[in-house]
Design a protein that fits this description.
single chain, 183 residues, alpha+beta, Protein Transport Mog1p, Chain A, 8-stranded antiparallel beta sheet, 3-stranded antiparallel beta sheet, 25% helix, disordered N terminus
Length: 183
């Protein structure tokens, strides 16, 4: 095959791979951890944005037609190296303690755990009463090298409740990639 045909085919393949999802398709992002990576897929009707939340968040999600800054309900993913905390219980306790430093009236209650595709379970906490007036759901996932927190947050209780199904869908889309993933 002549080189010019190969170059044209390679360019077309690159275009197809890098093209944004077509209407109705869901976006999947890869988030890198210490020794492996995870993937998360935006829930139906939501957008994955890997730029707007940086450098604080690795990826953010918000309803289609809105934005990270303007949406009434948003979700984001964060990770913490396992070496910082000895186990997921300590990670969760530290996360709550940090929140309570700024918001002494923070109320935390256990939510319904979410079953993941690998058979593990994400623990969920429901938070209210922070200094910003947020309603939050936080799913905690323990990987072999890191802890993952997936958060739904909103200042509007109705928008928060409306986004709960999308939160569960996002958490259930979690996939561990690389070593320890059982691939």
């Amino acid at each position: 095959m002549p080189l010019r045909h190969f170059a044209a085919i390679a360019a077309l393949a690159l275009l197809l791979v890098s093209a944004p999802p077509a209407a109705g398709e869901q976006e999947t992002g890869t988030f890198y951890l210490k020794d492996n990576a995870i993937s998360l897929t935006a829930p139906k009707g939501w957008v994955l944005d890997e730029e707007s939340g940086r450098p604080r968040f690795q990826g953010v999600f918000y309803p289609s037609g809105s934005s990270w800054a303007a949406s009434e309900a948003v979700m984001y993913v964060n990770t913490l190296a396992r070496s910082v905390e000895p186990n997921v219980d300590a990670f969760i306790a530290d996360d709550i303690a940090r929140e309570r430093q700024d918001s002494p009236n923070l109320q935390v209650r256990a939510g319904e755990p979410i079953r993941l595709s690998d058979g593990k379970t994400a623990r969920v906490n429901l938070l209210t009463g922070d200094k910003w007036g947020n309603f939050e759901s936080v799913a905690y996932i323990d990987t072999s090298s890191d802890y993952v927190a997936i958060v739904l947050t909103s200042k509007n209780e109705a928008a928060y409740k409306s986004a709960q199904a999308a939160f569960v869908e996002l958490v259930k889309s979690y996939r561990l990639l690389g070593p320890g993933a059982g691939l």
